Structure formats: structure tokens, C-alpha cells
Records
---
Amino acid sequence: MKIGIISSGVPFVQGGYRFIVDWLREKLVERGHAAEIVYIPYTDELDLILPQMAAFRLIKLDDYFERVITLRPPAHMVRHPRKVVWFIHHLRMFYDLWGTQYCPVPDDAPGRALRAAIIAADNAALGEAHRVFTNSRVVGDRIRHFNGLDSEILYPPVLRPEIYQAGEYGAEIVSVCRMEHHKRQLLLVEAMAHTKTQVQLRLCGTSMNPAYVDELRAAAASLVVADRVIFENRWISEAEKADRLSRALASAYVPYDEDSYGYPTIEAAHAGRCTVTVTDSGGVAEFVMDDVTGIVTAPESAALGAAFDRLYTDRRLARRLGEAAAEQVATLGIDWDTVVAKLLG
Amino acid sequence: MKVLVLSTMVPFVHGGAEELCDHLVGNLRLAGVDAEAFRIPFTWNPADRLIDEMVIARTLRLDNVDRVIALKFPAYMVPWHDKVLWLLHQYRQAYDLRDAGQSNIADDARGDQIVAAIRTGDMLAFGEAKRIFTNAPITARRLRHYNAVDSTVLRPPLNDPELFGGGEAEGYVLATGRINAAKRQYLLVEALRHAPGIRLVVAGPPDTPEDGERLRRLAVIAGVEDRLTLDLRFLPRGDFARLVNGALAVAYLPFDEDSFGYCTMEAFQAGKPVLTTVDSGGVLDIVRDSETGLVATPDPEALGAALAALADQPERAGRLGRSGREALGVHQLTWPATIGKLLS
């Protein structure tokens, strides 16, 4: 089948939204399909959002593709008789963030008119789609609430699950994700100050924000846990990630109010590692259930530290939760065969 | 520095323009620049569609970029304050091809409106570009003639010159390039009838299965199958270069090409003479009869005679090929120099 994978893109900004596009193409091609990636530039400047959405809508794809799969908004605005929307988020400032401090749109007549126009455009684009999938329950709930439409959850898998292996359960709580404020590695460092065992913390990942990394290092020093906090502040290859996880005690992932469960959670599960998370991490709870596939604590350093100690002193617990996490991946159908079958169904 | 290369996309088509786009990005990165390409899907039928295509390009917005290098219509219309054009060609069906009666834009009032819109849009885009480079003198002349815009010729270099080191001639003439009616490999197959004993190898991907079938059929009709090898596919570059390096000469006969053509540059890099035709356009900017190759009329008899002449005088062929290498060398077409100009 000739398939177009359409996404908006910001030049030179990498991240999850690109990975899912690249990976999907690879998996479609592996299965004998012809797939082409189309990135259309897009910028969030308020006055330009509607015209850009109109431009997306004008793009003619029927001649080239038998099916198009759209990812990052406003890619879903494109038209095609067999358009499958894999919706990863709304333009949230007009939806759940409306009226909060995170919304740059003024709540005045022009602002409200813009919001109404964007919701109407989304309703039309989603309503006409052949199928609508979301990457998480949270996003599906929002589509139902704001757009009045049903959708189906289609969990994004990691690229090569087979590279993850479960080794011995070691002494390290591992975090592999970008080091940014909203990922809250600081909470993990502070948790280490409350631990009573020799449990260690390994923080891996790049950062857009060197000051935050400095803050993390300074916190580790001032809390006198620097000898048990290992920093790998750089790009971590897939092989390195698999290696760190294969001998970890568990993974920790404590972002603030994410929509989806996050790739770190699934990568850990593939390596038979459970995830320690907190109650306000949002979609992570969709995968991590307390005492089943991980440990969920209050978003406080003392509670997190106690969870680290619990896993350190009870490796059988780490193994039981880790193995359950691995099974949960299969139960939820987080694999490429499922994804491809649904997107082409 | 962040450089965004903008071009258009016809999904699932990969030819010279796509290769150029990929290598431009690769060589920008080698030069230590952050580079990435965005390619916007392009449809030109029916002709009214061209208006929408321009509206799309004009309405899209960029962010997080220092310089844009735009290659094709209408991608070069995307607004950006620091934009350099490296024009591979305009939408020729609104210019010289319409004058030649070879356009998808009708010769009526509506057609005139579409052409006027394209020319207006082009003038806007050319006017806001910091610099305009073109890929060949003919592209620059068209731009001057139709748009009264001056440009600098910047010929795309070979992407992998190191593969074409040359070598002993192994007694065959090689025809390269995509296989289609406009590149006229079929004339060479027919020419074999007039060139007894000559071996011809045709190596390249057919645009359509029919393009390949046509060559097979003609070989049977001409009774030259025993002297013809058809390797009709996109060859791995190493295999392709070995064929060029072992050839007596390269035959390349496109109809009215704009530029030298990669086929010509590959041949000259390897020190092989090029057989071409009097109507091959920009190829003639570097292939000169009896200096760097042979230039024949585009008919089987003349081409057959030229093939025979090359085979009968292998030493002369070698001399022409070496002159071709020198002629190419004069242009100093390298990626580092090209990148330097695009970023200046």
C-alpha cells in the first residue's frame, strides 16, 4: 500500500514527535509497504495558526497515497478519503490549558473567536477521518470532552523492543529521559537524601537547559549524595540504554502531568524493570499501577526515597513488579504488529 | 548556523533533484552547519491546482531557522527573511515550455491568468531572495529573459567523485541515466545496427516498465541482442562507477537538458569521452565535438558512425576523455566551494 505519514515539524527540533514518524515508516516498509514521510513546517504564533491550518487543508495528497496517517497537529487538517489520525495532542492552549497560566491566548472576544474557530476546524478534520486513534487515555478523553468524538487508544511502541534484556537486578534506579524541569529529576536527587540504604541513582539524558543540570549536580553535592548519584548528561544510544536498564534495580519516571505513559516506562518494562512514579505524573499511571507494575508514591522526596529503599532491600519485589510490567506491554498490545494492523484497518 | 533546505516532493519519485537535496544537506552538515530539508508535496494537474500550490507555500510559516536555501517552485515562495535560491528550474510550463506549446496550462484566457499568477508569485519570491543561484547558464538566461532577474550560475558538483577514478577501457560503450524516451537510449540500441561489432551496455533505472520493454523489443527487431547488455535498475554506486571506469566511452543523449548532466560529469571525472547529440542542450556546454567527445545528429546512422569511430580509435577516445576530465576540472565543482557560496 502507498502510505503517506504526515506531520507538522519545527526545523531542528527533534524529540518524540519525530521518532514516532521515523519508526512508523521503518515498520511499514519492513512489512512491504511504500511509505513516505511528509513534514510540513508549522509555527505556533497565534495570528498564524488559522492560516497555516488552511494551508495544510489545501495540500493535495489523493494522487499519491492510498492512505495517509497524520501525527503531530495540525497535520490532521489535511484531506484524504482514507485519512487515519493518530492524534498525539491538541493545540492545548485552546483546550485543557485554556484559562490557565500556560495559555498565551487572551480570554477576550478575539481570543474566544480564535478558540472557537480552531475547535470547529478540529471537529471537521477529526470528524471526517476514516479512523481516529490517540496515544493515551488522557488525549482520548479530551477528544470526547471537547470535540464530542470517539477515538481508540493506540499505544506507541518503542523502535526495537528486542534489544532490551533483563539481567540481574542491581543497585541503580535509572532515569533515561531529557533533563528538564518538568521531568523533575530534582525530585529524584532529593529523594536520594532520604534513602537509608546504598541504593544509587543514575540520571541519563541530554538537556536543553544546562542550568538545570548544574542545579541537579549542586543538589546532589549539598545533600551529600553525590557519591551515589551518577550523571550521564549526554545523548544515550539505544544500546547504552538497554545496557543501563538490563542491570538496573528499577526505572524512575516522574514528569509533571504528562499525557502519555512515556517511552522510558515502556523501555524499562521491556527490560523487565518496573517504574517508580508519582501520583501527579499524569498518563504514566495508565501503565504503572502501584504494587503491580511499579510503585506510585506521593510527589514528595521522602516517599520516593522510601520506595527506592524498598526495592533495594527486596529484589524479589523488584523482579515481581518488573516481570509484571513486561507482561503489561503484551496485554496492552504495545507492539508494531498491533499498531500497523490498526492504522491500516 | 541553522540552514533549512526547502524543496518540493513528488512522493515516491527519487531523481537528480532529490539526490541534490540530500547531498546538499549532507555537505552542509560536513561543513559544520545544522542542516535539514523539508519537502512539500507538489501537484500540478489540473493547471488550476498551481494557484493552490502557491497559496500553500505562501501561507506556510517557518521558525527556528537562520537561512533558507530553496530549490524549486513553489517551495521558494515560503516567506523567510534570509532566503537564498538555488534554482534548479522554474515552473517551465509557465515560461519557455508554454511558448514551445508543451505546457499543461491551456492556451486560453484562464491559462493566461494562471501564467500571470505564477509569474507574479515568482517575481515576489525572486525579489525577496537575498541571492539567486541557478544550476546552469540556460536557467539563468531564462530567468533573465522572462523575469528580468540576474542570477549567478552555481553548477551542482558530483556527489562522489572519488568513485570515478577511471581505468582501462574494456571495449564497451556505456549509456547511463534514467531510461526514458527523452533520454533516448533507444536511439543507441538502433544505432548498433550501423556499428558492427560494437558492444553497448545500458545501465540505469527505467522510469516505467514500458521504457525498459521498449529497449528489449528494439534490440530484437534490430538483431543486436548479442552485443547489447541491459542492466535496467538503480545500480549501487560502486557497481555503477566500475561500469563507467571500464567503459570505452559514455553515451548520453538527453533532449535539451539544462545542465551538464551527472552522466556527463561522471564520465569526464573518469576520463571517458562522451557521445552526445546536437540537440542535447546544456550537455554541449562541456562536450565539444572531437575535443572532449563526439557530437552527432540524433539519428541511428550518425550515432552508429560515431560509435564505430570511437571503437576504431581507442587511443583517440582516451585522449578525448582526458580532455573531458580537464574541461570538468576547470569548473572546480566541489561541494565545499559550493557550500561556501550558498552560505556567503
---
Amino acid sequence: MVPLSWYMVLSMIVFSIGVFGFLSRRNIILMFMSIELMLNAVNINLIALSHYLQDMRGQILAFFVIAVAAAEAAIGLAIVIALFRNKATAHVDEMKEMQG
Amino acid sequence: MELQFYHILIPFLPLAGFIINILLGKEVTRYKAHWPAVLFVAGSWVCSLFALRDVMAGKIVNADLYSWIVSGTFKVSVGFLIDPLTAVMLIVVTTCATLIHIYAIGYMHGDTGYYRFFAYMNLFTFCMLMLVTGNNFLQLYFGWEGVGLCSYFLIGYYFDKKSAADAGKKAFIVNRFGDFGFGLGVFMIFLTFGTLHYTDVFSNVSLMVGQRVNFLGWNADLPTLIALLLFCGAIGKSAQIPLHVWLPDAMEGPTPVSALIHAATMVTAGVFLVARCSPIFNLSEVAMNVVAVIGALTMFFAATIAVVQNDIKRIIAYSTCSHLGYMFLACGVGAYAAGIFHLYTHAFFKALLFLSAGSVIHAVHTNNIQEMGGLKKYMPITYAVFVIGALSAGGFPGLSGFFSKDEIIWSAYAAHTPVGTFVWILALAGAFFTPFYTFRLIFLTFHGKNRGVHHEEHGHGSHHGEHHFHESPKVMTIPLMLLAVGAVAAGWIGIPPILGGGAHFAEFLKPVVGHPEFHGTHAEEWGVMGLSTTLALIGLGLAAFLYLRTTDLPVRIGKAFKGLYTILYNKYYIDELYNYTIIRPTMWFANHVLVAITDAKIIEGIVNGVPGAIGRFSQSLRKIQTGLVEHYGIFMAAGAVFIIALALLLR
């Protein structure tokens, strides 16, 4: 039986990779993937604790997260495509029209 | 007696007329606006007759209709007190209002604001009736301000004319000064008695004898203070010195308005107030003397101004001022019944004079009596009723004005106090001036040759031009004739015992205002009466001599006493005095302090400074917004770390 702490450590590692990737990468697709990593780290955590506490609510919440992540990916990728068509690049350093 | 349905209808019928005309006037009633207006006011008159019948049968109504304001111990209701005093006012107000509404059908015919005129006239009647029927000071105050508002609307009725709009503003602002004092008086009554209902106040009025109160650092006698504060309101509304300046300017309004509001009813509200509060005034000799002296001075000064004016309506307006002075004079010597009696007769003969003047103006289209003359043969009815009104106003024996004026002069004489004697002498002077200036007006308007200039401009000779004058339509002359009957006969109910009458009027009012004690013999009474009548005849004779026989003499007298003439012609320079002492400094203060400093620096400073500061702050804050996603990402991560660290540390 794998103890709970291992799951938590795994979740933490995956989340940290996500955060690092989001902050260090400049390619918008890679940043997207980093966000997905963070969301999945949260899912691991939720399900592990759900099993540990014998409470189904964590798993239900994980489904919600998956649904939201799917919707977010669909919209996000559509935005990325629109951006790419306009700017011919996926590099976020070159997008600063919103500068105040 | 219980409150009857027709008591409630008295004020609320005109209100219904107002609502109908103000809502539907523009689209529906239009040039038929007089139908609801006249019918509702006439209905109110009928109800007033029922109310008078009840009061004469000794049944006095004092009932609350509706609980208006309840706040802690402060309770005010909309209620009715219909006692002899109110009954007299009801008859005066509704009779004059009905006749003047009918007259206005002819006078205002074809005016673009026809429905607006009748709507405001109805609203005025409602407010005036609320004022006289109220059973508490707040309802009185409501009516008081309501009639002031309607007066403003109707003076400025021709609002596209600057002088009319200015006159309306002047009337409203001058009245503010008086009403401020009146308001304070009502507050003082509430502070002293804890209630505003007449019966509760007047039955406990003896409690305040000898009480003193600190008012603006002045250790004042309480009854004197309250009486004088209330009298402030009366001074403003009834155009007494020093707040009389608005009334002559108020003549910018249409003539029916002058007749109803600025002669017969609204301006007499001050006299009604003093009579209604007679239990309070009786407690203070100082206040009574102030009332008598201010009344007498106004009476005298207004009469002297009227002698040299040339505007037909302004002469009658000064005459109104002067007669209101008579009423206050009577109240001031304790003869409230005589004051109210004069109010009652004055309403008829002064409304008659105004409406006849309106009839003249309707025909000749000018207000300047120097451009009139010789109208007698063109307007026989107007001429006849004008003479009746003038004789009544001048106090010629047998007519209404004689009985009431004589009653006042006799009361002043019989008071046998220094103040009484002083006001008696001024009252006698007034008895001379009134017929003098009214008959000067008549002789210049109706007698002699026509001096009109504008008719010769038609290019076909003056004798042709004169044929343009014509008598007013029946809808105007019939109310005139009815008012003339009132001007002759209304006073017959108050004939003093010495002339074989029963002084029914004074007896009728005795339960409300009491009766002063006179110390005089019959011989003295005959003497006083003879003296005032002789003076009136001298006034008439002098006017006839100066303006019928030797028509060039008045001009020469004017030249000989140029200084006096100029002072009188310019109304003692009161307007100029106020202009320099009050209006100019106020305007200077407004322009140089309020506009230049308070408004431009302080208010604008705050209003523009706050958004300016926010703008400058955001200018520096916007540098954070780089538009680069990774920067936002770092902020979010740093924020998350910061919050988690905070949560861990504070656990």
C-alpha cells in the first residue's frame, strides 16, 4: 500500500514543475501545458485525500477540475490560434499591446 | 359638532379643480379650463354657506381629519377648526374667489396660459382655505407657504416678461424674511406648550405669563417674543413696513390675481394670524403696541405714496397696503373684531376697485392714468362700480367701508393710551388720504379729455381712435356689479349701536377675539365719526378741485414742492435703500466670496482635486502593467507564496 505522503510528494513535484514551467517558458503552448500540469497535480492531491478520508467529495471535485480544464484548454487554444494568425508567433515576449 | 362632509369639501374642491386643470389642461380642458375651476370654487362657496349656518347656530367644529406627522411627543394632524373667525374668512375667501374666477373668464380670454392660470388660482384658493380652516399652527404654516408659492406663480404668470419674473422673485424672497420669523415663532410655541393645536395652546396660554427666555443673548419676555415672531410673518405676508416693498411690484401679475391674492385674501392672512393668536398678543403690551404702530405707519406712508403714483394698479396696491395698516392698527389697540370687520369689507371694495381697474386696462391697454381720461362715456358700468368702490374705500357714510373704518378710528380713540392716540391721529390722516387718491385716480381716468397717445398712431384722427374703447363683456361686468353690492351692503351687518345697528359682526366674533373695553361718551363717538367723515369729504373735495377744476395746479404744486414730490414719487427710496444696504452687499458677497472663493476654490478644489489625485496615482501605477504574461505570472506566484507564508506564520 502506497502511503498518502508519497502521493502528496508526487503532487507537489508535479505542481512545482508546472509553476516553474509557467514562469520560465516563453512559448505560449508550453505555458499552457504547465497550467495543465498544475491542475493535474491538484487532481492527484484531491483523489489521494479522498481515498484516505473515505470521502467521495474529493473525487467529485476532481471531475469538476477536469471539466473546467477541458473547457479552459478549448478556449485557450482557440485564443492561441487567433493570436498566432495575427502575430505569426507564439512567443509571449512579443505580445505587449496591453501595456499600460 | 362632528366634522361634516361639506366641511371637508370646502378646501378640497378647489384642489380637485387644480388637479384636473394642471393634468388635463394642456390637452383636454384648454379654453374650457374655467368650467372645472369656477364650478369647484363655487361649490366650495356653497359649502362655506353651510358651514356659516352651522356656526351661526352656535355649532363650532374642531376635529382632526388625518394624523399628519407623529414623531415622539410631536403630533400634528390635518384638522378643521370652524369657529366664527374662520367662518368670516371662509365667506370672504370663497365669495371673492368665485366672483374673481368668473371675471377672469373674460379678462384672461384667449391667453395662451389659460388653463395654467385657472389651475394656479384654484391651488391658491385651496391653500388659502387650508390656512383659514386649520386647527393647528403647522396647517396654518402649510397654507401660509402655499399661498406664497401660488402668489409667486401668478405674479410671474407672464414669465417671458423680465419685470414680471423679477417681481415674482422679489415677492417670494421678501416673504422669506417674514416667514423665517414666523417659523421661529411656531418653534417657540411648540417648545413652550409641546403642541401646535390652537385649543391646547390657547387654553394654556396663561402659563407663559412672566416667563423669560434667552433669545440670541436677549433675555426676552416669552409672550412678547412669540407674539413678535408671529407678527414678523404677518409683516411679510401683509406687506407692512419694512417688508411692504413686494406688494406694488406684485402688480405685474394679471389683474384678477391682484384682486384675489394681493387685495382680498392672501395679504389679509397676516391680520387673520394676529386675530387668531389674539390670546397670545393680549399677554404682551409691547407686542400690541408694535402691531398698532407698524400698522399706523404703513397706513400713513403707503397712503402718501399713493397720492403721486401714475400706475393705476400701483395706486390701488398702495391703497391695499394702507388699508392693511388700518387692520393691524385695529388689532394693535385690541379691537380685533374691528380689524376683521375691515378685512371683510375691504375684500369687497378693494377686489371691486382692482377688477374695475382691470376692466379699464382691458379697454385701453395701458396702466398709466396720465394716458387715460374721459372714459366715463365709453365704460358707464365700470365707471359706476369704480365710484361705488372708491366711495366705500373712502369711508363715505352708509357704505361698507364707512362702518368698518369708523369702528377702527373709534377704537383707536377710545383706547385712551398714548399709542392709541398716536395711531388715532395717523388713522384720521389716512381717512383724508384714501378718498383723495382714489378720486384722483377716478378723475384722471374717467373724467376730462382722453390723453391717450397710442390711439392717434392709427392715422385716422383722435376722435376716431376714441371709438376703440368699449365696455367689458358681461362675464366681467356682472361680477363687478355683485361686488359693488357687497361694497355697499356688506358692512350693514356691523352697524354700531349709536347708528341704530346691533354691531352683529363684533358680537359674532366675540367668543373668539373678545371685545375691548371702550371708555367714551356718545358725544365723543359722534364727534370722532363726524371728524373722519369731514376729512373724507375734504379729501374728495380737494381731489375734485385739483383734478377737475384746475387741472394745471397739481403739476405746479409738484414743481413747488419738488423735493417732497420726488421723495413720494420714488416711494421714500425704500427700494433704493434695500438695494444699497442689502442687495448690493449680498451680491458682492456672492460674487466675490461665494463664487470666487467658496465655489471656485473650495468646492471646485475638492471636486477636481480628488479625481486629479487619483489620476496622478494611477499614472504611476500603470507602469506595473507591462502587458507581458510572464510578469503577471510572477506576481501571481509571488502573491500565492506570500499568502501561504502568511497563513503558515499566523497559524
